[in-house]
Amino acid sequence: MIVYGRNVAFEYLKNYKKDIRKIIIQDGFNDKKLLSALENTKFDVIYKDKRYMDDLSKGVHQGIILDVMDYQYTPLNDLLKSDAQFVVILDHLEDPHNFGAIIRTSEAALVDAIIIPQDREVQVNSTVMKTSAGALAKMNICRVTNLVQTINKLKDDGFWIVGTAMDGTDYRQIDYSGKIALVVGNEGNGMSRLVRESCDFVASIPMRGEINSLNASVATGIMIYEVVRNRK
């Protein structure tokens, strides 16, 4: 997997050195802090021109690219065996920037894990990693084959399932005590029918202006902190 950016590079050098295969740096790279960190490693550093870096990353690489091992997802069974109290489920989210932002908010709020489907969902990639600003390294991400079956397993483990939709109950009127699994739907289509039918509650964030919806990561952040606020 190709990842890029200075924050991501620092995160790997700090926590995931064993996963680094190769480090590629742009000619003229002058980040003294990163270069100093690289001096204390045994990695071969390859220097390339900007065109090569741009073609390889397809994004804003900030002069450094890492070739790393594929991301290791947390098995669902490991999550169920833990003392997890609050998880977020993403129902076929598509935008890697939204995914990365949700990871960042979830880590800040001490969400125990994020659950994503294996198919038709953005997976962990370099954009997600960069957008999470290092939070990915501290967050459990579970990848499952069937969301409805996973929700049923969470219910068996004592979780209440709270979905999100425009026509739900005001999110401030829902009881968030106990174990909570917050479900966030696709950016354009919301939750799938079967996932919605599996929810115990469906919450909605009231819109007061002319715009009738929020960005997925913004709405998720509001919901996450409402759950946290009610669990103090």
UniProtKB/TrEMBL annotation:
SUPFAM superfamilies: alpha/beta knot (SSF75217), L30e-like (SSF55315). One of its GO terms (cellular component) is cytosol. Keywords: Methyltransferase, Transferase. GO terms for biological process: methylation; RNA processing. The keyword Chaperone does not apply. It is an enzyme of class 2 (transferase). Gene3D superfamilies: 3.30.1330.30, 3.40.1280.10. Its EC number is 2.1.1.-. Signal peptide: none annotated. GO terms for molecular function: RNA binding; RNA methyltransferase activity. Residues 2-74 form the RNA 2-O ribose methyltransferase substrate binding domain. Pfam families: SpoU_methylase, SpoU_sub_bind. The keyword Transferase applies. Coiled coil: none annotated. Belongs to the class IV-like SAM-binding methyltransferase superfamily. RNA methyltransferase TrmH family. This is RNA methyltransferase TrmH, group 3.
